Amino acid sequence: MTKHGCACVFEINFYLQRPSENTIRTINNYQWWQSRRIKLVISVIVLAIVIITLSLVLKFVILAPKKSETTTGTTITTASTPSITTELYSTATTTTTTPTTTTPTTTTTSNEQSVWRQAGNLNHARYRHAASVLTDGKVLVTGGFSGSYQLDSAELYDPTTDNWTLTGNMNIERELHTASLLTNGRVLVVGGESAHGYTDVAELYDPSTGMWTVIATMQQARAEHTETVLPNGKVLVAGGFNGASHLDNAELYDPSTETWTNTSDMNVGREHHTACVLKDGRVLVAGGGNHPYENSAELYDPLTEIWSFTGNMTTGRERHTATVLEDGKVLVTGGAHDQMSSAELYDPATETWTAINAMKQTRFDHTASVLANGKVLIAGGYIVDVLDSAELYDPFTESWIAAANMNHIRTDHVAFVLANGKVLVAGGYDNTAMNAAELYELL
Ligand SMILES: *[C@@H]1O[C@H](CO)[C@@H](O)[C@H](O)[C@H]1NC(C)=O
Ligand SMILES: *[C@@H]1O[C@H](CO)[C@@H](O)[C@H](O)[C@H]1NC(C)=O
Ligand SMILES: *[C@@H]1O[C@H](CO)[C@@H](O)[C@H](O)[C@H]1NC(C)=O
Q1: How far does CA 281 lie from the centroid of its chain?
Q2: Which of 140, 151, 225, 358 is 20 to 30 Å apart from 131, CA to CA?
Q3: Torsion angles phi and psi, residue 165, rounded to 5
Q4: Which DSSP string corresponds to 337-383?
Q5: How far is CA 106 from CA 70, 113, 119, in A?
Q6: 296: Cβ below 6 Å to ligand 2?
Q7: How far apart are the first and last CA of the chain?
Q8: What tens digit of pLDDT does each residue of 90-110 get?
Q9: Residue 194, φ and ψ in degrees, nearest 5
Q10: Distance between CA atoms of 174 and 127, rounded to whole angstroms?
Q11: 124 contacts 146 by C-beta, under 8 angstroms
Q12: 71 lines ligand 1 (CB under 6 A)
């Protein structure tokens, strides 16, 4: 019995059985006394168990809401222990503030599982600047407006370090100019507004030296024009504003002779229009102008150097975007003219425009970038207020999907697709010139 009792792991039982071993005669008395003690001990055990379970239950009550608190910190209901609730609220506030302080870079994710992350800041805040992706994958940002004056500074974004470094200054400060990467790896910057007015000065950036060289001046001073690299390597500069009129003049830069020559004039004078190279090598120019906004579009054929009207857009617009999709059609979005959210598609085969679903947000001076998955990312812009909203056009469903909002509101910014698939958005205007840059990436 004793052995059996000792076999019991309960330490209290073992202690109780010791007196029964020593005094066998008075076993009955001891048994009564013992049984009472057992009762006592059992009640103590039961009490202990009750206390343990109570504390466990309390712990669950305390711990469970703590975990779900990040979403709803105010919905905790522990009326029995007010001291605990205050403690809970204090922990709730710390848990909700830490994510915002430790990771200010991430914002809300969209149903596209994408995110905007803060990138390194530009050295100089700027808007109405121009940018191009170099052959080594870096992004060259040039000029722009500081808020009080035009900039001649240029800087390079390195996607591998996520920072910006100043490179050589341009020879002319400018805003509302254009920049494009030539087939020889250099960047051609032309026109814009300088401190001395509309400029015809063109210059070349050499990435190997980081230096700028002024080249032959254009035939026409202009800003708010378009600059398009043709399949033959020449550069078409078209339209714009020279302070007096909306220009129909267009000219060609030949990198092999480093000269400018007039090509035929467009049929319509345009500024703030768009130009893009179709898959067949022709250039589609659309919209632009000012009161009335042009609904017309025309095609430039690099072989004949002739402009010819193509189908009219469904509406007049300027400060819109035009993007060549993977299937060769051209997506045009938004723009200024009655605050537009409308979008349309140009089909080069039929030379016609078809209205598609409107964007979720009315905007102009926004950016459009074709992602690796074929979707088009629309970001920022202006309408009454500067926008932080972004949305995606899905060419396969011809519909618009909300994307995560940018970390900053911005308009008059630049956006470029990097070799790593991310979209870099840099600078712009958020009621003042901005130096903030951010990256859009799919998760
Ligand atoms: C940018 O990154 C490079 C390489 O890591 C580093 O040498 C340079 O100091 C960085 N510049 C800034 C401004 O952080
Ligand atoms: C080129 O066109 C511009 C604007 O129409 C004109 O002022 C200029 O004289 C032309 N250049 C030549 C060489 O014809
Ligand atoms: C295009 O629109 C203009 C008015 O902006 C109109 O005069 C012209 O006839 C239109 N062209 C076609 C082909 O509908």
Answers
A1: 30
A2: 358
A3: -130, 140
A4: TTT---EEEEETTTTEEEEEPPPSS--BS-EEEE-TTS-EEEE--EE
A5: 16, 12, 11
A6: no
A7: 69
A8: 222 222 222 323 333 334 444
A9: -105, -175
A10: 11
A11: yes
A12: no
Task: Give the single-character DSSP code of 64.
Answer: H
CATH of domain 114-442: 2.120.10.80
182-199 burial string, b = 16+ CB within 10 Å, else e?
A: beeebbbbbbbbbeeebb
Predicted confidence (pLDDT) per residue in 218-235, tens digit: 999 999 999 999 999 999
Q: Which residues of 215-254 are buried (b: 16+ CB within 10 A; e: fewer)?
A: beebbbbbbbbbbbbbeeebbbbbbbbbeeebbbbbbbbe
Q: Ligand 3: residues whose CB is within 6 Å?
A: 295-296, 312
Q: Which atom of ligand 3 is nearest to the CA of 312?
A: 1
Report residue 66: phi and psi, to 5°.
-55, -40
Q: What are the beta bridge partners of residue 416?
A: 424
Query: For the whole prediction, is pTM greater than 0.90?
Result: no
Q: Which of 249, 251, 261 gets mutated to test ligand 2 (max ligand atoms within 8 A of its CB)?
A: 249
Displacement of CA 161 from its chain's centroid (Å): 18
> Which of 170, 173, 145 is CA-nearest to residue 155?
170
| pLDDT digits 0-9 by tens, 364-419 | 999 999 999 999 999 999 998 999 999 999 999 999 999 999 999 999 999 999 99
Cα separation, 70 vs 66, in Å, equals 8
Residue 233 tokens, joined: 């390597």
DSSP string across 14-43: HHHHHHHHH--TTHHHHHHHHHHHHHHHHH
The number of helix segments (H) and strand segments (E) in the chain equals 4, 32
Ligand nearest to the CA of 316: 3
On whether the CB atoms of residues 229 and 249 are closer than 8 A, the answer is no
* CA 323 – ligand 3 centroid, Å: 23
Residue 162 token pair: 């996520």
> By three-state DSSP, how is residue 405 classified?
coil
**CA-proximal residue: ligand 3, atom 14 (nearest):** 312
Ligand at shortest distance from the CA of 138: 1
> Would you say the CB of residue 123 lies under 6 angstroms from ligand 1?
no
CA 312 to centroid of ligand 3, rounded, Å? 6
Distance CA 288, CA 226 (A): 11
Q: Provide CB contacts within 8 A for 131, sequence distance 6+.
A: 139, 140, 141, 142, 179, 414, 416, 426
C-alpha–C-alpha distance, residues 222 and 246, integer Å: 9
Helix (H, G, I), strand (E, B) or coil at 53: helix
- For the chain, the structural domain boundaries read 114-442
Residue 171: other Cβ atoms inside 10 A? 14
For residues 61-88, give the mean pLDDT.
29
